[in-house]
UniProtKB/TrEMBL annotation, chain A:
<dbReference type="InterPro" id="IPR043163">
    <property type="entry name" value="DsrC-like_N"/>
</dbReference>
<dbReference type="GO" id="GO:0002143">
    <property type="term" value="P:tRNA wobble position uridine thiolation"/>
</dbReference>
<dbReference type="GO" id="GO:0097163">
    <property type="term" value="F:sulfur carrier activity"/>
</dbReference>
<comment type="similarity">
    <text>Belongs to the dsrC/tusE family.</text>
</comment>
<feature type="active site" description="Cysteine persulfide intermediate">
    <location>
        <position position="110"/>
    </location>
</feature>
<protein>
    <recommendedName>
        <fullName>Sulfurtransferase</fullName>
        <ecNumber>2.8.1.-</ecNumber>
    </recommendedName>
</protein>
<dbReference type="Pfam" id="PF04358">
    <property type="entry name" value="DsrC"/>
</dbReference>
UniProtKB/TrEMBL annotation, chain B:
<dbReference type="InterPro" id="IPR003787">
    <property type="entry name" value="Sulphur_relay_DsrE/F-like"/>
</dbReference>
<comment type="similarity">
    <text>Belongs to the DsrF/TusC family.</text>
</comment>
<dbReference type="Pfam" id="PF02635">
    <property type="entry name" value="DsrE"/>
</dbReference>
<protein>
    <submittedName>
        <fullName>Intracellular sulfur oxidation protein DsrF</fullName>
    </submittedName>
</protein>
<dbReference type="InterPro" id="IPR017462">
    <property type="entry name" value="Sulphur_relay_TusC/DsrF"/>
</dbReference>
<dbReference type="InterPro" id="IPR027396">
    <property type="entry name" value="DsrEFH-like"/>
</dbReference>
TrEMBL record, chain C:
<dbReference type="GO" id="GO:1990228">
    <property type="term" value="C:sulfurtransferase complex"/>
</dbReference>
<dbReference type="InterPro" id="IPR027396">
    <property type="entry name" value="DsrEFH-like"/>
</dbReference>
<dbReference type="Pfam" id="PF04077">
    <property type="entry name" value="DsrH"/>
</dbReference>
<protein>
    <submittedName>
        <fullName>Protein TusB</fullName>
    </submittedName>
</protein>
<dbReference type="InterPro" id="IPR007215">
    <property type="entry name" value="Sulphur_relay_TusB/DsrH"/>
</dbReference>
<dbReference type="GO" id="GO:0002143">
    <property type="term" value="P:tRNA wobble position uridine thiolation"/>
</dbReference>
Length: 111, 116, 92
């Protein structure tokens, strides 16, 4: 079992590094998970992570790349809701990596 | 041009895996830009009933998932009006009601059909 | 486009055949297999004027008599039929 240690807390991760319990998530957790991916979270990242958590709360599922782009365009406008912006932020795999950092399960329809 | 696919979902939401599987096929197809349609028929129209509570039976919220169809590029969502009337359900806002003749034509229009 | 509808449930306990008949087009055909073979006892199937096929072995196993308005076939015939129609809709 993979684990993630933050201060005195030890959190369970699945084999792909996603949080097992969604309730374990916090901004600290996101920062540590991002560091493991050699990523430093900026305001642009946080905006997408929050958006993604909103998506999950609304639809109870984690979007694949296309719906993520569509949803981002809908909520933040086309200058952010495009594959270039999202790929740049999340090392080329926005749906998978953003979901991981947002504490969500692996996207179900990402084959 | 990829082949178009119609998925007919005709099982009630909490009776087994069929409703979930039908939706998964549609969402996966939509995410890959496949021309895809979804028709609710028979007990499948119960998936469209309002105010369901998936948590009461420890299930994932299928109704919430259905609201994401548009974002997954699935705009052709239909419901069998005969099945709705038979079950005393109002016409749902999220699906276009079709009578039997219209469903015959719908099936005709798609290259492939999967009925679950 | 023509569709071959495959029904494998008895119409006397299940709504598949009834629903199928409701939405069948005039060019379509119905193939009965498994307990679907009991559908030959169902008068509604005949009145629609559709082509009806039944898998011979499933019919024999159940001692269902072949009426003059239906045809029986083996698995090779089933495969040929799947090719002859534009698509196959299996009522799972």
């Amino acid at each position: 079992m993979n684990t993630l240690t933050i201060g005195s807390r030890t959190l369970e991760l699945d084999k792909d590094g996603y949080l097992v319990d969604l309730n374990d998530w916090s901004t600290d957790v996101a920062n540590v998970l991002a560091a493991a991916e050699t990523l430093e979270l900026t305001a642009d990242h946080w905006e997408i992570l929050e958006l993604l958590r909103g998506f999950y709360a609304e639809f109870q599922l984690c979007p694949a790349t296309r719906p993520l782009i569509k949803y981002t365009a809908l909520k933040l406008g086309p200058e952010k809701g495009n594959s270039l912006h999202l790929n740049k932020l999340f090392n080329g795999t926005p749906a998978k990596l953003a979901a991981k950092l947002a504490g969500l399960p692996r996207p179900t329809n990402c084959l | 041009m990829s082949k178009s696919l119609l998925v007919i979902s005709r099982q009630a939401p909490w009776s087994g895996p069929s409703a979930r599987e039908a939706l998964d096929i549609v969402l996966a197809g939509g995410a890959f830009d496949l021309p895809i349609g979804l028709l609710f028929m028979d007990d499948g129209v119960f998936q469209l009933a309002p105010h369901q509570d998936a948590k009461a039976v420890q299930q994932k919220d299928l109704s919430a998932n259905l609201q994401a169809l548009g974002l997954f590029g699935v705009d052709d969502v239909f419901a069998c009006s005969h099945s709705l009337a038979e079950r005393g359900l109002a016409t749902p806002g999220s699906a276009e009601p079709l009578d039997s003749d219209a469903i015959t034509q719908l099936i005709d229009r798609y290259d492939q059909v999967i009925t679950l | 486009m023509s569709t071959l509808h495959v029904v494998s449930h008895s119409p006397f306990t299940d709504s598949r055949l009834a629903s199928c008949l409701r939405v069948c087009g005039t060019e379509d055909a119905i193939l009965l297999c498994g307990d679907g073979a009991y559908g030959l006892h169902n008068a509604a199937l005949h009145t629609k004027g559709l082509k009806v096929f039944v898998l011979a072995e499933d019919m024999q196993a159940r001692n269902v008599t072949l009426p003059d308005w239906a045809d029986s076939l083996d698995y090779a015939g089933f495969v040929q039929l799947s090719i002859d129609y534009d698509k196959v809709n299996t009522w799972l």
